[in-house]
Amino acid sequence: MRKITDDVIYIGVDDLEIDLFESQYRVPQGVSYNSYLILDAKVAIMDTADFRKGEEWKANLRKALGDRTPDYLVVHHLEPDHSSMIAEVLEKYPDVQVVTGVRSIKMLQQFFDTPDIAGRCITMKEGDVLDLGTHKLHFYAAPMVHWPEVMVSFDEYEGALYSADGFGKFGALSECGFYSSEDPDWSEEARRYYINIVGKYGGPVQNLLKKAATLPIKSIRPLHGPIINEDLGKYITLYDTWSSYVPESKGIMIAVASIYGGTMQAAEKLKELLESKGAENVFIRDLCRTDISRNVSDAFRYEKLVLAASSYDNGVFTPMHNFLHLLQIKCYTGRTVGIIENGSWAPSAARVMNEMLCQMSNITIAEPTVTIRSRMKSTDYPALEQLAVALLQE
Ligand code: FEO
Question: Which is nearest to 350 in space by CA: 361, 337, 360?
Fold first, then answer.
């Protein structure tokens, strides 16, 4: 719990024990479930928390409320990492009303058995205002950032945007800092969070950024990660880049799925050739031994990508298949990609990688596709050399 302005108290909680966020993402520095309490003429709770930290969140709420009683529970997003405590709030405070978007009503009924939960909701449409006294919350729809019912709100008194998952990041606040100014590595885990969780919805994020550009924002208060009070343009520019699917950094990522090391040797040779021709920031990522969510976010980050994989079961080695599947569903687009395959008796990896790339939009394949038979030999060098040249020309 922490007072952030005269009337607003942070009542969110860190989760350092969680093994996998959304049951799939490793979060070595944990995650925070952010929640805020606005104490004005009316009292508003701004979102809740995951059930995993429900007791701690309730204790924060009780302490922050003191002798006040909440009038409103504002629900910007119904994903359970933020909404798990709604039923308990409604039960404990029988007069509290849920303030949320129209599209939340059906989901509230799906998630909670609370009698007449819809009757306890005030629904907000685009531009509607919740008047708390001094603080006036203006609501804006942000569908698919990251679920369809998402709304954000803007407190005109403080210039604070309650941005739901937008501008969120992995990492507990105790580990990364309470304010983004204390978190020099903000973009690393924010990018991994954004690309993997919200990345499919670049268009909706662009729509939200257009709305945000019309508001005099001084503070961004997301549902995960530090509050952003300084240098807002830097963070908004990163979001604009990520949601536009354009590369953020120069560089070539060579993603390798190698079973016995033969494919890796070819990838290392290509790296050497690229560097000998002046390419900067060429790096190899072993898909078998590194975190796939980081590999996906780095594929989006850099300009160019090379896929190097063994053949497997008349297809492509599974770590590469999984990687490409994720790139496809996160809408990887507009990049130049090189392909190296390996096969000892019937090479099949390039065919499948090509097919999967063809399901993405605006991908240019750098020629030639290089086929290694079991182990790279000096006779393979010319093709690797041609691929290096093509990658640098694209
Ligand atoms: Fe942090 Fe989409 O929930």
Answer: 337
